[in-house]
Write a structure and sequence with these properties.
This protein is α/β, with parallel strands linked by helices and 384 residues long. It is built from 13 helices and 13 strands. Bound molecules: pyridoxal-5'-phosphate. Pyridoxal-5'-phosphate (PLP) binds next to helix 4.
Length: 384
């Protein structure tokens, strides 16, 4: 593969302002760089955003989910229902706590877990539901919680991608059971690496703090107790300062993402997306945060593989990504007994989904350039 051209358009890029960069320098100069006052301030700002619910910051959106599963009492002998179309962290954390993922196929339109199929997957071992809002498009929270209530199940929302998404007008995270977010650099706001967990009450938040850092509870000047096996999931103050600089821009970032997404629909349709059978995302401008703009290639109508399409786009300076291959087909999961054909919609989508560049600093002309290049490649590769 040759080096990308100078006008390379990446799949995504964070927007960090000068005040944030200066703020990080101040933290670095302050003498306190790991978890401290910046983390506390970030948690307070997040809590305010989530309608006053308790929030704890973590060093990843994977650690948040592992701790959430422990808080929900999930462990060996238990099953957790989740989607096969997600970042593999979603189901790896289920294995990490000693439980088994129970996958349910996706809805081909939303690309999220098909809520109508969940009931059939519930067994006496089921303890929790772990849905994902792929690309920030929220799973129907009303239907989800009605289901959880009917079967007395905990819910861990993998809202890694849903910062700023809404349900019934309220931010995701301000409602529901345990809600987990990621602040990885490709997310709508970032702490470089990091995440946060929205909790139900202070007792749960206190326990989350223990699971976050070696189970330690301190008291007085020298008191220390340990009652649970905790991990090492604390966020640094440097990272929290990045988050504090990002959060005030969330609404503006997401508004720009929404404009760019609207433009993608217009530009792709104008160039014959429907005629070639290109799968577009649901046109949801009320709930989703447009974390990603993902198309599904019509494999049966193309003479090129997805990798070849990606290579041709890379050759004209356009980065694309795959989010995600179906989890149950990874070797680790096949060894657990999952096999091709188990979840055909997730498998088809996982083989053909393609993420196009989308980030707030993109120009309108960048969208046109991507749409033009993609449709040119696909049209040339169309089977007669
Ligand atoms: C759907 C989903 N779940 C979980 C994660 C894990 O988050 P992190 O990378 O912060 O551990 C991510 C982010 O990469 C994600 O996109």
């Amino acid at each position: 593969m040759s080096a990308p051209p100078a006008d390379f358009l990446p799949l995504t890029r964070p927007t960090l302002d000068a005040a944030t960069i200066e703020g990080v320098a101040e933290v670095l100069r302050s003498g306190w760089i790991t978890s401290g006052p910046q983390v506390k301030a970030f948690e307070a700002a997040l809590s305010e955003y989530f309608g006053g619910r308790p929030v704890r910051a973590f060093n990843s959106g994977t650690g948040t989910m592992e701790v959430a599963l422990r808080l929900a009492g999930v462990g060996p002998g238990h099953e957790v229902i989740t989607t096969p179309l997600s970042w593999v962290a979603t189901s790896n954390v289920i294995l990490s706590v000693g439980a088994m993922p129970r996958f349910v196929d996706i809805d081909p339109l939303t690309r999220n877990i098909d809520l109508k199929r969940i009931e059939a997957a519930i067994t006496p071992a089921t303890r929790a539901l772990l849905p994902v809002d792929l690309a920030g498009l929220p799973v129907d929270r009303d239907a989800l919680y009605a289901l959880a209530q009917r079967h007395t199940l905990r819910v861990i929302e993998d809202a890694a991608q849903s910062m700023g998404s809404r349900w019934q007008g309220k931010p995701i995270g301000s409602l529901g059971d345990l809600v987990s977010f990621s602040f990885h650099p490709n997310k709508n706001i970032t702490t470089i690496e990091g995440g946060c967990l929205v909790l139900n009450d202070e007792r749960e938040a206190h326990l989350a703090e223990q699971y976050r850092l070696q189970g330690v509870v301190r008291s007085g000047f020298d008191g220390m107790e340990v009652e649970v096996v905790g991990g090492k999931f604390n966020l640094t103050d440097v990272a929290a300062r990045v988050g504090l600089g990002q959060l005030p821009h969330l609404a503006q970032f997401n508004a720009r993402r929404q404009q760019l997404a609207r433009l993608y629909f217009t530009e792709l349709r104008a160039r014959g997306a429907a005629g070639i059978g290109l799968g577009l995302p649901p046109e949801d401008f009320a709930n989703g945060n447009w974390h990603m703009f993902q198309v599904v290639l019509p494999e049966e109508r193309l003479t090129l593989s997805r990798a070849q399409v990606m290579e041709r786009l890379m050759a004209v300076g356009i980065g694309t990504g795959v989010h995600y291959p179906a989890i149950h087909l990874f070797a680790l999961y096949r060894r657990l007994g999952f096999k091709p054909g188990d979840f055909p919609i997730a498998e088809y989508t996982g083989r053909n989904i393609l993420t196009l560049p989308l980030f707030p600093a993109m120009q309108d002309g960048d969208v046109t350039r991507v749409a033009e290049a993609l449709m040119r490649v696909l049209t040339a590769a169309a089977r007669n």
